[in-house]
Amino acid sequence: MSTSAARPTLKRPVNPVRRPGASVGMRRPPGAASNGPGAISRGAGLAPGSKGNDDGYLYVAGVRDPSKRVTEYRTEQDVCPVCQTDRQFNKNLRLLVSPCYHKMCESCIDRLFTLGPEPCPQCDKVLRKVNFAHQTFEDLKVEKEISVRRRMAEIFNKRREDFESLRDYDDYLQTVEEYTFNLLNDVDVPATEAALSSYTTDNASLIATNQQKKAMEALSQTERDEVEKRARAERIHMIEEAERVDRAEEIRVKAEIVDALARPSGGQELAKEIADRAAKAKAARAAALAATVPPSLAALYNVKDVDETPHSPNSPSYAGPYVPIPYSDPDEAEWSHWYNLKDNYADGRAGVVWAKEDREGAVRGGGWDISLFWEMEVRSAVEALSLEPLA
Amino acid sequence: MDLAALENQTRAERWEKGVKIGEGTFANVYKGTEKATGRKIAIKKIKVGEMKDGLDMTALREVKFLQELHHPNIIGLLDVFSVKQNVNLVLEFLDTDLEAVIRDKSLIFQPADIKSWTAMSLRGLEYIHRNGVLHRDLKPNNLLIASTGELKIADFGLAREFGDAKTRMTSQVITRWYRPPELLWGARYYSPAVDMWSIGTIVVELVLRVPFLAGDSDIDQLKKTFHAMGSPTEQDWPGHTKLPDYHEVAGYPPNPWWNLVSPLGRDGQNLCRELLKFDPMARVSAKAALHHKFFTTGERPTAPILLPKPLAELRPRDIAPQDVAGMPDSGTKRKNTTPNGTEQRSIARKLFA
Ligand SMILES: Nc1ncnc2c1ncn2[C@@H]1O[C@H](COP(=O)(O)OP(=O)(O)OP(=O)(O)O)[C@@H](O)[C@H]1O
Ligand SMILES: [Mg+2]
Ligand SMILES: [Zn+2]
Ligand SMILES: [Zn+2]
């Protein structure tokens, strides 16, 4: 099973996250055909119009066990990145992979790690000999692809609406694709990592915002799933109902035909007419059934018109501002009509004068509102008028 | 034993204290029963405060406001008694809180559910504001949910009366993620609009199912806010540069953040924008919000009893959410909010629910 991945020569990758294409970093020699059954065709997942020249593709060749599972990948082009030994020089060259996805030949691993943990010669992550032992290349391919793509998707979650122009968005996608390519193929790793980390700091809050958007979309997805589940149940119910009608009709039509045939004359023609009509009606019912959208789906996919008519206080589901009873509308309180507020009052209290002038600008920005203050004073004074005096 | 002590004791004896069901920064909450009727209640025991005389202002405020405020969307206070120097509030028992509902990912919210929770919060808050009180600690965890599905505003430990002219108020209120920009910039003269901002962030959270603006410091909170919504201009918000702790957090471009709440429809998006206006003077009041088209057209708000609720009783909770890494502290809280005598003004009110 070999797959191809595009180098970032694309103008605009369709979807940098979901594009197929696993790669362990072995470049395909010009002219070589892609190997193995199930190879994904070269153009798969590419934007229309992108060039598919061979130079742009990677491939992996596999060594398969009898169950056709790839146990180890090797190619004629294998080179140990540490000691530069290649397959021409050592036919049995075996490259193993570290948890940081760096390849190394067995003899390098022996030489470097026999005495204990040492930093990876390519990225300085501290490694032990046992770390190299267990992975097949296929595992690596999948794991690395997933982990890199997942990591990229988490950081590079900008959306079209975050850019002024489509062009900017394209450039961004292309950059992301370049970084992804670099990490997948061990190209310019330190520089790429540095670029990622500075991007992450610079865009921390937008990244967070977009993660929230994603969470929200996930929510609507769950809702959608829920609706679809309900729709399926409705559909099944509709079909059962239609079948029941069909069976009942069949019995009724049969009886009618028997009656018609029992007639002394013209029975044959009448029976045929009844049968024809019944067949047409059945076809019409089937067509109607096929055309009916389950109610929950209809509600979901049809753009709902917002019902602009205000809820009525007499409707059982009324939910106006102060309901349900026994809440009451404060504007209906007796005393609420006992006063009219003015926009401004001649109020000479020192605090009020100070707040009105707001020389230091201490009041306006914080939103302290003199009219609220007046309103409260006037209202509480008036409210007090309606209180029973204390005995 | 004097008469007051005797009366306190008889009151205390009406209630049976059970297991601990919740812990806040300043109180432990226990499940309990009314001995005579077997009715479930909650006992909130205020932790001993820093006040010299041992009587915590928190308790006093909470008792004072809860005794005066009676509304279907505000938690009911049934009794108060003290044991040693601890003040115990006897509250109606509530099953869960909005935070637990939001966090329960097995629950699916329909827009009509969000409409219902928002309406209930606003009803309670409109009543609180109408009576001249600022809540100053609205967050999902302080919006409790009764077994009937009804939402009740709780935790009045940070509440105070609306400031008189020239009365400085502390800006260290409201848990950070729900705190409006004027408080983050240290405003000392503010209005009920601070609570409206909290409601706005809560509504967005109900859609996102994660806190909308989760800053990890006060400065980061401003950055996250403006990053999401664009930096304010003098035109958006006159006078903001004069706020005491103002520092420039400019350069974030305007951003159509209301797309985040598109499931609420055009009217819901519009209400969110009204609730989250930077300029507190332009921010919608609770009363005006209740009259918003969002509530009176389109889908009806879900009836409280039909609202999604966690199946299992989530209690007892081991740790206060505030102790969990990543949760922001609410300001410096109670210690700073002691009223300085002259601030307090008493408003005669006829409480009209
Ligand atoms: N009446 C009640 N019924 C059931 N549980 C309750 C009740 N009151 C409070 N709780 C639980 O106890 C927790 C703490 O209560 P509360 O918020 O009143 O205390 P607090 O110390 O003031 O909290 P905070 O730190 O949030 O300010 C709540 O989050 C809630 O889970
Ligand atoms: Mg609380
Ligand atoms: Zn080697
Ligand atoms: Zn390495």
UniProtKB/TrEMBL annotation, chain A:
The keyword Metal-binding applies. It is found in: Nucleus. The keyword Oxidoreductase does not apply. It comes from Apiotrichum porosum. It comes from the Eukaryota. It holds the Pfam family zf-C3HC4_5. This is RNA polymerase II transcription factor B subunit 3. The lineage of its organism: Eukaryota, Fungi, Dikarya, Basidiomycota, Agaricomycotina. SUPFAM superfamilies: RING/U-box (SSF57850).
From TrEMBL, chain B:
GO terms for cellular component: cytoplasm; transcription factor TFIIK complex. Gene3D superfamilies: Phosphorylase Kinase, domain 1, Transferase(Phosphotransferase) domain 1. Residues 15-295 form the Protein kinase domain. Residues 319-346 are annotated as: Disordered. Pfam families: Pkinase. It is an enzyme of class 2 (transferase). Its EC number is 2.7.11.23. The keyword Transferase applies. SUPFAM superfamilies: Protein kinase-like (PK-like). One of its GO terms (molecular function) is RNA polymerase II CTD heptapeptide repeat kinase activity. One of its GO terms (biological process) is positive regulation of transcription by RNA polymerase II. InterPro entries: CDK, CDK7, Kinase-like_dom_sf, Prot_kinase_dom, Protein_kinase_ATP_BS, Ser/Thr_kinase_AS. The active site is at residue 137. Keywords: ATP-binding, Kinase, Nucleotide-binding, Phosphoprotein, Serine/threonine-protein kinase, Transferase. Belongs to the protein kinase superfamily. CMGC Ser/Thr protein kinase family. CDC2/CDKX subfamily. This is [RNA-polymerase]-subunit kinase. It comes from Apiotrichum porosum. The lineage of its organism: Eukaryota, Fungi, Dikarya, Basidiomycota, Agaricomycotina.
